[in-house]
């Protein structure tokens, strides 16, 4: 009697685990059937490029959410870092003379700005016990305001640089290809792989889960919870900075309003990927799949010519449904697990 | 997302308030003593525009501010970010600061009427620029660029660039914005008359460059036959141009709307075919001129609704336009 139950429950459990992937496959199949050009190498490459933006943000966001926090400032930080790059490429005027900085240094400075903004978030949350929602909401405004101040509301054009100033090559960050795959996709894949490794295979990763699972227990177990949180916010800031740089490179211009509401897409991707907003449960891989679902939905609906209003409604429905199903399935999963354990206990007795 | 204006700090407001109290007290005294013939007049002109990170609205605000300062007024610039509630708060602040006139690019016709009426009742002369409201008699003047005529100009240039045939796509502005609707209607009034021009995809990109970039990339995948993209404003047109460049499709013709410097540069670089220039600076200056006249004489001497035609900017005349104005 017990053997078949175990088998079916194992198959069901496998299906449950693959549920996000199944959803992805269904969406891919649906759009491929409805639009003849959807499942082509060219379009998938562009799709991947679009997804890489929210995937990068979702990667940093996942680490923060795993500690039980949230980072609302990622969109604004992306906008700020794009503006910093735009400012530097267009030349810094100090004391009457204009200075041009080589591109690697420009990228480094922009990343540092992102890390610094993340560190501010982290310090506020970890050292001053400001609720993550509030601390990062503050940073959302501060970073956006700073971007507007730095640019005076203008767009920085011509980020292609000029040979005379030895600062060409920035657009490659968003526009170049390696082995036929766009650079932003490589960047997102590398960062996500590193983050997944960090989360799953290092002591730091275990500390992240521990802090999110039970912060008090983690602290009593000797984990420096403040430092763990600080680092996750810095990493999230860095991911946001990368996004800002990629978008600026793609458009060859930097606009201070770039990244508005990106944080919501990132949070949606994280939640779709099965990471709990309470912290302690979830994975980078799940968030990547979440980002793919959102990206495919957005692009697929555009290809089908669905109106903007419906796109927004459908996105909302998918997010809410996915989380509802997640809750339902974890309950089912729990019941199956209980059933699995009961016969074993009897056998032992 | 930028509820920050560069002026209007709280300390300033307090100073203004203290100053005003002083004037009120002194003038009350003077009135009692000499029965003076003229009420004390605030010399603040409040300027409220949708945002300060869009070149069009920025020029609009700055041109108005420059003119008002030139006339000796104090000036305050704020942005409502297309949020009618925030606009309401900003207008309350203008009433509280006893502004003499309000130059307003409003946050949507229906949502703005009651707020504008309140400002008028509080004694502020309201001058609307860029966007019209449907009710007459509340604002002292409504000076708007002719979006319909402009859209038709853009569409005629677009159709000509496409030799009146082929598949095209449209990027629409924020769909809740009346100007987005007027422009798309204007485009289609012209384009739908050519049966060989076929609209294969129409998407809203919410006036945004990065959104237009992504949506254009996707639309080009769904419809490689596209040979033209008509955009409801310049930022979306520039986003489309970046996508077209990335897809290596220099054959695709793109037109914008607004006449920003970035778009004019792109026309010179052959990335855009044409744009339509709304004379933002001119409209703002007209509004301030009439506000000044009204403050001094209680009349503008002009009809309330004043519609200013737009200019088509293409490669042939791009050198004559800058900062949303025709060069002298």
Structure notes:
The complex is a heterodimer of chains A (349) and B (328). With 349 residues, chain A is mostly helical. Chain A has one domain (20-29, 38-333): ABC transporter involved in vitamin B12 uptake, BtuC (Orthogonal Bundle), CATH 1.10.3470. Helices cover 74% and strands 3% of the residues of chain A. In chain A, the strands form 2 sheets. Chain A has a two-stranded antiparallel ribbon with strand order 1-2. In chain A, strand 1 and strand 2 form a beta hairpin. In chain A, helix 1 (2-17) runs antiparallel to helix 14 (308-348). Chain A starts with a helix and ends with a helix. With 328 residues, chain B is of the alpha/beta class. Chain B is built from 10 helices and 14 strands. Chain B has helices at residues 10-34, 55-70, 84-96, 109-121, 147-161, 178-191, 209-222, 234-246, 261-268, 280-297, and strands at 44-49, 74-79, 101-104, 125-129, 141-145, 166-172, 197-204, 226-231, 253-255, 274-277, 305-308, 311-314, 321-322, 325-326. In chain B, helix 2 (55-70) runs parallel beside helix 10 and helix 7 (209-222) packs across helix 8 (234-246).
Brief summary:
The complex is a heterodimer of chains A (349) and B (328). Chain A is an all-alpha fold and 349 residues long. Chain A has 14 helices and four strands.
